[in-house]
Amino acid sequence: MRYSYPLVLCGVLLLAGCAHGRSQNTPKSDVAAQPGNAAKQDGPDEFIMVDKDPTWDQADLQRRIQYPEDAWRNNIEGRVFVRVLIDRQGHVVETRIDRSDDPLLTPAAVKAVTETVFTPAMQHDQPVMLWVQIPVTFKLSTH
User: Fold this and answer.
1) 129 in helix, strand or coil?
2) What's 46's DSSP letter?
3) Phi–psi pair at 39, nearest 5 degrees
4) CA neighbor of 12 nearest in space, from 143, 133, 141, 139
5) Looking at the chain, which runs of residues are DSSP E strands?
6) 95 Cβ contact partners less than 8 Å away, ≥ 6 residues apart
7) Single pTM value for the model
8) What does each C-alpha distance from 84 to 38, 98, 103, 109 come to in angstroms?
9) Phi first, then psi: what are they for 124, rounded to 5°?
10) Among residues 126, 63, 64, which one has the least CA distance to residue 89?
11) Which end of the chain is less crowded, N or C, counting CB atoms within 10 A of the terminal residue's CB?
């Protein structure tokens, strides 16, 4: 007898990496000190250099994700890329869906990510708002 068990994985893509000409060998502190790298956050595609990326409890985020029943019944798997704006207190204040493999998976991914509390990004020892992209993978495993 075969059983399907939902398996949900999530990771993160930080939107503060090697954009705007920064090479991978350039230390963060050198780039952050250059003119034009201000801590301005206008939109989800705006580049911001930070000294410390936001953090969160990955296990807590995993526990919050519930496989949608309709998706489970219909053997739907896929990924949802949720972009979130984390404020200076570590709360999600805005979400955007960059991509979703199936609309049945989207609400579960957004709900779990939105309920997660983050440690905000830091720049010059001050918390700053930052957009991050969190890919959530929904996969049915068979045993």
Assistant:
1) coil
2) -
3) -85, 60
4) 133
5) 4-10, 13-14, 78-86, 92-100, 121-123, 126-128, 130-142
6) 82, 83, 84, 85, 110, 113, 114
7) 0.68
8) 20, 10, 18, 11
9) 55, 45
10) 126
11) N
Look up residue 10 and give its two tokens.
């999530």
Q: Tokens for 126, please give them.
A: 């001050």
Q: What is the C-alpha R_g of the chain? A: 17
Which residue, chain included where needed, has tokens 């230390």?
Answer: 27
Q: Which two tokens stand for residue 82?
A: 């949720």
pLDDT digit of tens for each residue in the chain (143 aa)?
444 445 555 554 444 333 333 333 222 322 222 233 333 455 766 667 899 999 988 888 888 989 999 999 999 999 999 999 999 999 999 999 999 999 999 999 999 999 999 999 999 999 999 999 998 889 888 65
Whose tokens are 């911001």? That residue is 48
